[in-house]
Amino acid sequence: MIVALDDYKDVLEIDKSNNSFDSILNDMADEVESKIEEFLGRSLEQAEYTDELYDGSGSSMLILKQFPITTVASIKQYDGYSGGEVWTTLVLGTDYERLLYVKESTAVYMDGMAFAKGVQNYKITYTAGYQNVPLEIVQACKKLMLLYYGETRKTKTLDKASVSITMGTTTTTTYDKEAEKRILDSIKKYMAFNI
Fold it and tell me: Dihedral of CA 9/14/15/20: which sign?
């Protein structure tokens, strides 16, 4: 979770010891955070991404899907087909001189080598995401939760078994789409570059 349940309870002014709506609040938190990540076009929490496919750019730099990049475990280049796909792992000091994370850790740069132009001709395994999600994004999550929760209370659907805002089987909540847009627009600078 991007925001702890107790922090959501604080902003909603719900006593932390009151667990009666925890299940529904957790569902709402999942939807809020999914909405934020969907809008930004990327995951936020730190995770490892294994053998993600990329098109070679023809330059020494390649923008990755997730960021900030913290480590790159391997870069594999497609070397053709011989009874199966052949991938060669690029080696520091042999294939390239050094690997840098550039543009606020959104891209990798291989000094001394270019990513050959091609379609899905690179597989990259790397770790990316925030150990501490930026405060602006945390605040946006809290504001969305407040918006959705406020509308839920108005329509008295909080005690129903299923409350769904954007995903799931039923939609039981409506909310101010303009307010939602303003909240999301406030974190636009964190959007993925390659979506």
Answer: negative
